[in-house]
Automatic annotation (TrEMBL):
SUPFAM superfamilies: DEATH domain, P-loop containing nucleoside triphosphate hydrolases, RNI-like
Occurrences of domain NACHT (ranges): 175-380
Top-rank lineage group of the source organism: Eukaryota
Residue ranges of domain Pyrin in the record: 1-87
Statement: the UniProt record of this protein carries the keyword Secreted: yes
GO biological process, alphabetically ordered: inflammatory response; innate immune response
Keywords, ordered alphabetically: ATP-binding, Cytoplasm, Endoplasmic reticulum, Golgi apparatus, Hydrolase, Immunity, Inflammasome, Inflammatory response, Innate immunity, Lipoprotein, Membrane, Nucleotide-binding, Nucleus, Palmitate, Phosphoprotein, Repeat, Secreted, Transcription, Transcription regulation, Ubl conjugation
GO molecular function, one term: hydrolase activity
Protein name: NACHT domain-containing protein
InterPro entries listed in its UniProt record: DAPIN, DEATH-like_dom_sf, LRR_dom_sf, NACHT-assoc, NACHT_NTPase, NLRP_HD2, NLRP_innate_immun_reg, NOD1/2_WH
Species of origin: Gopherus agassizii
A cellular component annotation (GO) from this entry: nucleus
PROSITE patterns: DAPIN, NACHT
C-alpha cells in the first residue's frame, strides 16, 4: 500500500500536491473526520504524508487518495493509480487462489487432513473430437487390454488444459468451452487444477488477468438474489476489490462454471428478464442466464463443466463455441496415479500389479474416483499390516463403494426419490442386459420415468449421433460393467411397485442362472455381482447407506445352482467350459462368506486345471478355495502357467519355477505365492498335488 501511495503522490506537481492537502484538511471522507493542519504541517515530506494517510485512513487509505484525486481533477494520476491498484491486487488475488486451491480435502478426510493438489493430480485424457456411435459402443463394452488400447488411441488425439481456448482451424477463438464428462471422471478436480495452475503462472498466464470459480451446487443453496459482482467478490480475499478496473477489461476475464448439471432452475428465460448491468441485483437464475447468453460482460470467457445429460439444457441458454470431453485415465495415467497416491514405488507397484490382474476392476480404474477408492482401501490395508494380495476387495465391493461415492453429494436430495430412481435404473439395466442393449433412446428413458433431475445426470451418459439429416440423443451407463452391476441389483432388491417398471418376463433369478453359460458371456458378470451383493455385510451396508433392502431369499437358489455342478473341475472339457467353471469359482469368491462356501463346495473333491494359464486373480480365487473347500482331495497343476496379462490378452509365462512351500526371500514376487500360502494353511485338506 505504501508503495502505491508513494508513487502516486510523487507524480503530483507541487501545485496539485497543495490542492490535495487542502482537500485533506477540509473534506470528511466516509465520515472518518478531517486531518488537522498541525498533522499536515508535520508531514513535510511525501513519505511522511504517506504514513499519515495510512495511519488516519488505515485500509481505506488508497480509496481515500483516489477520491481526493478525483476531487482535484488529476485524472491521469487517478487512472495511473487505479491501474497500479488493479495490478497490485491481481498479485494478491493470485496468492489467495494459490493458497485456497493448493490443498484439497478428500471425501474421507478427517479434521486437518489435506492433500496437495499438484502432487495428487494426474493428467486426464481430454478430447474435442466427436465420436461415432460404433466408437462409443466399443468404449462401453471393452475391458482389459482392449479398453486400454482404446484409451491409448484416444490419448493420441487428446487436447491439453492449456489449449482449450486456442483458435480453431478457421482462426476463431472459442469464447465458451464446455468440458463434459461422466460422474466421478474428474471435472471438478480439473477445474480446481486450472485455478491453481493459472495462479501459479502455468496456464493462461497472458490470456486471462482473472479467473473466477463458480460452484453450481453452492449456487443452489446460496442467496436467491445476486449480481455478477457478488459472484466475483466471493472468490476474492477481502472486500477491497478494484471492481471497476477488473470489469474494464472483460476480454481478460474467465468464469469457470463447475457442475452446470446440478443447477436446479430452468434457463428458459425471456429476453426482458435478462440484463446488461453487472451491478443490478436479480434472481440468481437471471444473473447466470444473462452471463451465459452474453448479455452481461459479453466479451468475457466461460468454461462450463457438466455431465453429458445436461447438454440439451445448456443449449437452451447459450451458444457454445467448443465442446471437449474428459474420458478419464489411460493405462499409463492409472499407473502414475497409483504412484502419486502411495508415494512409495514398492507399494504402488505391488498395488497396481494386483489390480491389473483383475481385468474388470482395472478397466473401471479409468474413472478417477474408482482409482481413488481402490488406492484408499489398499492403503488402509497396508497401514493395518494386511497383505494386499490376500485382502483385496472383491469386484462387487469396489462397485458398491463407487455407487456410494456418486450418491454422497446428493445426500440432501429426498431419500425416497433417490431410492425410487435407483430402482428404475436397475430395471432399465436388467432389460438392457437381457436384450444385449447398451444404448437407450429418449423414449426408453421416458418409459422408465428416468428423465428427471435426480436420476438422469447421476448414472447415465448422453451421446448425440447423426441420423440421416437429424441428430438423436442416446443414453448409456458409464461402462457395460456398471450396467451389469445395476442389473444384478435388480434381482436382489425387495420387490415393490418401482421394480415393476421392468419389461423383463419376471424377476426370478433362476432364469438368470439357467441361461448362464448358454448366452456367450453377457450374463457372466451379472451373476458374479449377484453373489457379491448377497454378502451379509454388503446387504446391511446398502440398507444403512442408501436405504435399499436386499432380499436374501434367492441365496438357496444360488447354493443349489453351485451344488448341481460336477464334483470335479477339469480341463478335460473344452476351453470355454473351463472358463465358465472358473467363473463359477469367481462368483463364490465374491460372496466372501465361509459358511456359504463350505456348504456350496462340500461336493468338490478334485480340481484339474492342467495346462491352463492362470492370472493372478485366478490364483487368488483358487487359493481361496484350497483353504475353504473341506472335501478337496486333489489339485492338478501339470503344465500350468502362472503369469500376468500382456497386451494381446495372453499370459506372459515367467521362467519355470518349482512349486515350493519353503519361505522365499521375496515371497510376494513369486507367481505361486498365493497358492503356497493356501497350501500351508491349517484348513487345507488337500492330499494330492500334482
Amino acid at each position: 500500500m505504501d508503495e502505491l501511495l508513494l508513487n502516486a503522490l510523487e507524480n503530483l506537481s507541487e501545485e496539485n500536491l497543495k490542492k490535495f492537502k487542502f482537500k485533506l484538511l477540509y473534506t470528511n471522507y466516509e465520515e472518518k473526520g478531517t486531518i488537522s493542519k498541525h498533522q499536515l504541517d508535520k508531514a513535510a515530506h511525501v513519505t511522511d504524508l504517506v504514513q499519515l494517510l495510512i495511519e488516519f485512513y488505515s485500509e481505506d487509505a488508497v480509496d481515500a487518495t483516489l477520491y481526493f484525486f478525483d476531487k482535484i481533477c488529476v485524472r491521469d494520476s487517478a487512472a495511473r493509480l487505479r491501474k497500479a491498484i488493479e495490478k497490485d491486487y491481481r498479485v494478491k488475488y493470485k496468492e489467495h487462489i494459490k493458497k485456497q486451491y493448493q490443498l484439497i480435502k478428500e471425501r474421507n478426510s478427517r479434521l486437518g487432513e489435506n492433500v496437495n493438489l499438484s502432487k495428487r493430480y494426474t493428467k486426464l485424457t481430454i478430447i474435442s473430437k466427436l465420436r461415432c456411435k460404433k466408437e462409443r459402443e466399443h468404449e462401453i463394452m471393452a475391458s482389459g487390454w482392449r479398453h486400454a488400447k482404446i484409451m491409448t488411441e484416444r490419448t493420441r488425439s487428446s487436447v491439453t488444459m492449456n489449449s482449450l481456448f486456442d483458435p480453431d482451424e478457421n482462426g476463431q477463438t472459442p469464447q465458451i468451452v464446455v468440458l463434459q464428462g461422466a460422474a466421478g471422471i474428474g471435472k471438478t478436480m480439473t477445474a480446481k487444477k486450472i485455478m491453481l495452475d493459472w495462479a501459479s503462472g502455468e496456464v493462461y498466464e497472458n490470456r486471462f488477468a482473472y479467473i473466477f470459480y463458480i460452484n453450481c451446487r453452492e449456487i443452489n443453496y446460496g442467496s436467491k438474489q445476486g449480481t455478477v459482482i457478488d459472484l466475483i467478490t466471493k472468490n476474492c480475499p477481502d472486500k477491497n476489490v478494484p471492481i471497476e478496473e477488473i470489469l474494464l477489461n472483460q476480454e481478460k476475464l474467465l468464469f469457470i462454471i463447475d457442475g452446470f448439471d446440478e443447477l436446479r432452475f430452468s434457463f428458459d428465460r425471456k429476453e426482458d428478464s435478462l440484463c446488461t448491468d453487472p451491478r443490478k441485483e436479480m434472481p440468481m437464475k437471471d444473473t447466470l442466464s444473462s452471463l451465459f447468453r452474453k448479455k452481461l460482460l459479453p466479451k468475457s470467457y466461460l468454461m462450463i463443466t457438466t455431465r453429458p445429460t445436461a447438454l440439451e439444457k445448456l443449449q437452451q441458454c447459450m451458444e457454445c463455441s467448443r465442446y471437449a470431453e474428459i474420458l478419464g485415465f489411460s493405462e499409463d495415467d492409472r499407473k502414475e496415479y497409483f504412484h502419486k497416491f502411495f508415494g512409495n514405488n514398492i507399494d504402488a507397484t505391488r498395488a497396481f500389479d494386483i489390480v491389473k490382474q483383475n481385468e474388470m476392476h482395472f478397466t473401471m480404474c479409468f474413472v478417477p474416483i474408482v482409482c481413488w477408492i481402490t488406492c484408499t482401501v489398499m492403503k488402509q490395508q497396508l497401514e493395518a499390516g494386511k497383505d494386499f494380495a490376500q485382502n483385496s476387495k472383491t469386484l462387487t465391493a469396489v462397485y458398491v463403494l463407487f455407487l456410494y461415492s456418486l450418491l454422497e453429494p446428493h445426500s440432501n436430495s429426498p431419500n425416497q426419490n433417490m431410492q425410487d430412481n435407483l430402482k428404475k435404473l436397475c430395471s432399465l439395466a436388467a432389460d438392457g442386459i437381457w436384450n444385449q442393449k447398451i444404448l437407450f433412446g429418449e423414449e426408453e428413458i421416458k418409459e422408465y420415468s428416468l428423465d428427471e433431475f435426480y436420476s438422469l445426470p447421476l448414472f447415465l451418459n448422453e451421446s448425440v449421433f447423426k441420423r440421416d439429416i437429424d441428430c438423436v440423443s442416446v443414453y448409456s451407463f458409464i461402462h457395460l460393467s456398471f450396467q451389469e452391476f445395476f442389473a444384478a441389483l435388480f434381482y436382489v432388491l425387495e420387490e415393490d411397485k418401482q421394480m415393476k417398471y421392468s419389461v423383463t418376463p419376471n424377476r426370478d433369478a433362476k432364469l438368470l442362472l439357467e441361461n448362464y453359460g448358454k448366452s456367450g458371456n453377457y450374463l457372466m458378470l451379472t451373476v458374479r455381482f449377484l453373489f457379491g451383493l448377497l454378502n451379509e455385510e454388503t446387504m446391511k451396508d446398502i440398507k444403512k447407506k442408501i436405504g435399499l433392502k436386499i432380499s436374501p431369499k434367492i441365496k438357496p437358489d444360488l447354493l443349489k445352482w453351485v451344488k448341481t455342478k460336477q464334483k470335479k473341475l477339469s480341463f478335460s472339457s473344452s476351453h470355454d467350459e473351463l472358463i465358465y467353471k472358473l467363473e463359477e469359482f469367481h462368483c463364490l469368491y465374491e460372496i466372501q462368506e465361509e459358511s456359504f462356501m463350505k456348504n456350496a463346495l462340500d461336493h468338490f473333491t478334485e480340481i484339474d486345471i492342467s495346462n491352463y494359464s492362470l492370472t493372478q486373480m485366478d490364483q487368488m480365487v483358487i487359493s481361496f478355495f484350497v483353504k475353504n473347500c473341506p472335501t478337496l482331495k486333489s489339485l492338478w497343476l501339470s503344465g500350468c502357467r502362472f503369469g500376468v496379462e500382456i497386451k494381446n490378452g495372453e499370459l506372459a509365462p515367467p521362467p519355470a519355477k518349482r512349486l515350493c512351500l519353503q519361505e522365499q526371500a521375496e515371497p510376494n514376487n513369486s507367481p505361486v505365492y498365493l497358492l503356497c500360502q493356501a497350501l500351508k494353511d491349517p484348513n487345507c485338506k488337500l492330499k494330492k498335488l500334482k
